[in-house]
């Protein structure tokens, strides 16, 4: 019996407040009860930003959510995508030139035909809608159509558990019905610094002993892992999954040892560092940590673990290929570092050629193979932040201005200029232009062309 209207006014952006008020007004107009539910309410109470609005409509008929969605789309000037089998819809609309989405569902009851299956759904009350959810802190809703606006609906002690920092399932079969909740529990525990209630932890162990992960669809398992790997606390999540025995239940080889823990900790730090650089090339969390979890595994073991982690075949092939590319590059990198240490000729352009085929995630993993003060780590850091991004200071336009004849050789000339720049053989752009002209003359000479290199 708490009213959150003031909290919403104080904490929510204006456009989100407006959306919630609009949904409430439509509820009154269509004579249905409308709630915002789930993670949005959790984060509102925790004071964390979350604009992911999940609306739930309660009233008569399976199509009540659909009716709310269509009216909302009409008011917002958007469109509706329906998923009638699940009694859910998405309203898609534009706001300030940006596409926005709101999930709208009919309050529904879910039941499971067998453990780890996808649930069957049926229209129901808000209470049944909340009881099917994973944890008490996610089983909260706020009523939007009533006066006063903003009444909190908390049947299962969600507020209390949020205050105490506890993750608690709502019934004893929760993890049996849906083992992905074990992964969600870990993700939320690490994200908010919460603990899993003792009784709930016992239920996780119970679900593990029933070998339910083996029955889970690979796609759902992978989906949960991919979300975990995007969390800033991904490394801690993996450690917790290990200590609860979840990784070993997925595949015995995934169990941690001190070396792997050290590697994953370093990799996690490097991944956060890379994200803070805000480079346009995005590193995907799941690739980074999947490489990390199977670092030093042979081909067969890595392949078995990736299958167990639910990787779709196409992605598995990609990551297995990536590992091979990384392995070849790692051998070359060791040789290059040794040459440099021995005072031999270790050109940056040669390093660049070695590392060029490696994905950004692979580069981060190669960087993590070196300890804090290790030369490999320093070189990889410089390569990622500087050398890899280096471009020639002259462009095709400059070559044309220099009187060179445009053609496919332009690309090769500019690449050669870039290599010379990386190796410190040319300085300012004037020197790079001179080199380009020399290279063009050589190219023409090689091709045995009669015409002059310059127009
Ligand atoms: P995040 O903040 O990471 O987006 P979330 O809980 O807000 O997490 P979703 O994963 O989209 O967002 O889930 C929305 C709501 O749906 C949850 O708050 C929870 O109430 C319910 N839910 C999601 N997954 C499950 C599940 N596996 N079992 C039961 N309820 C779930």
How would you portray this structure in words?
- The protein has a seven-stranded mixed beta sheet.
- The protein starts with a helix and ends in an 8-residue tail after the last helix.
- Helices cover 55% and strands 11% of the residues.
- It is an alpha+beta fold.
- Bound molecules: adenosine-5'-triphosphate (ATP).
- Adenosine-5'-triphosphate (ATP) binds at residues 38-39, 52, 54, 133-134, 138, 178, 180-181, 184.
- Adenosine-5'-triphosphate binds at residues 38-39, 52, 54, 133-134, 138, 178, 180-181, 184.
Question: Topology of this structure?
Answer:
Layout: H1 5-11, H2 14-30, E1 33-37, H3 39-46, E2 54-58, H4 64-76, E3 79-83, E4 88-95, E5 98-106, E6 108-111, E7 120-123, H5 126-131, E8 141-143, E9 151-153, H6 158-164, E10 166-167, H7 174-177, H8 180-192, E11 195-196, H9 198-209, H10 218-230, H11 234-243, H12 246-250, H13 258-276, H14 285-293, H15 299-308, H16 313-341, H17 348-355, H18 360-368, H19 375-385, H20 396-401, H21 409-422, H22 429-447
Parallel strand pairs: 2-5, 10-11
Antiparallel strand pairs: 1-2, 1-8, 3-4, 4-5, 6-7, 8-9
Adenosine-5'-triphosphate is lined by residues 38-39, 52, 54, 133-134, 138, 178, 180-181, 184.
């Amino acid at each position: 019996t708490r009213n959150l209207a003031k909290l919403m006014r104080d904490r929510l952006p204006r456009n989100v407040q407006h959306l919630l008020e609009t949904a409430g007004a439509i509820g009154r107009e269509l004579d249905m009860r409308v709630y915002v539910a789930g993670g949005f309410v959790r984060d509102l109470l925790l004071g964390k930003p979350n604009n992911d609005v999940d609306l739930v409509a309660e009233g008569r008929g399976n199509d009540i959510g659909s009716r709310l969605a269509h009216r909302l789309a009409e008011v917002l000037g958007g469109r509706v995508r329906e998923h009638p089998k699940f009694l859910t819809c998405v309203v898609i609309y534009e706001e300030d030139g940006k596409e926005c989405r709101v999930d709208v569902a009919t309050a529904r009851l879910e039941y499971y035909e067998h453990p780890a299956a996808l649930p069957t759904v049926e229209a129901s009350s808000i209470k049944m809608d909340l009881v099917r959810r994973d944890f008490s802190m996610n089983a909260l809703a706020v009523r939007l159509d009533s006066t006063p606006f903003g009444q909190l609906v908390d049947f299962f002690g969600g507020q209390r558990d949020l205050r105490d920092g506890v993750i608690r399932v709502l019934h004893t079969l929760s993890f049996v019905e849906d083992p992905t909740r074990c992964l969600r529990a870990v993700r939320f525990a690490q994200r908010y610094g919460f603990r899993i209630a003792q009784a709930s932890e016992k239920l996780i162990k119970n679900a593990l002993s029933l070998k339910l992960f083996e029955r889970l669809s690979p796609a759902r398992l992978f989906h949960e892992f991919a979300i975990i790997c995007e969390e800033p606390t991904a490394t801690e999540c993996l450690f917790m999954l290990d200590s609860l025995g979840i990784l070993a239940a997925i595949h015995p080889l995934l169990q941690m040892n001190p070396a792997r823990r050290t590697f994953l900790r370093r990799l996690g730090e490097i991944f956060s560092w890379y994200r803070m650089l805000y480079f346009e090339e995005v590193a995907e969390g799941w690739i980074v940590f999947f490489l990390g979890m199977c670092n030093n595994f042979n081909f067969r073991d890595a392949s078995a673990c990736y299958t167990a982690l639910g990787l779709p075949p196409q992605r598995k092939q990609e990551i297995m290929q990536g590992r091979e590319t990384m392995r070849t590059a790692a051998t070359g990198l060791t040789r290059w570092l040794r040459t440099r240490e021995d005072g031999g000729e270790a050109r940056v352009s040669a390093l660049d050629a070695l590392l060029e085929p490696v994905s950004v995630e692979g580069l981060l993993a190669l960087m993590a193979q070196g300890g804090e003060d290790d030369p490999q780590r320093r070189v990889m850091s410089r390569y990622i932040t500087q050398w890899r991004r280096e471009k020639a200071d002259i462009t095709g336009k400059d070559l044309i201005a220099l009187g060179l004849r445009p053609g496919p050789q332009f690309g090769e000339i500019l690449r050669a200029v870039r290599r010379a720049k990386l190796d410190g053989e040319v300085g300012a752009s004037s020197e790079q232009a001179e080199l380009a002209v020399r290279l063009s003359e050589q190219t023409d000479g090689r091709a045995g062309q009669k015409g002059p290199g310059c127009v």
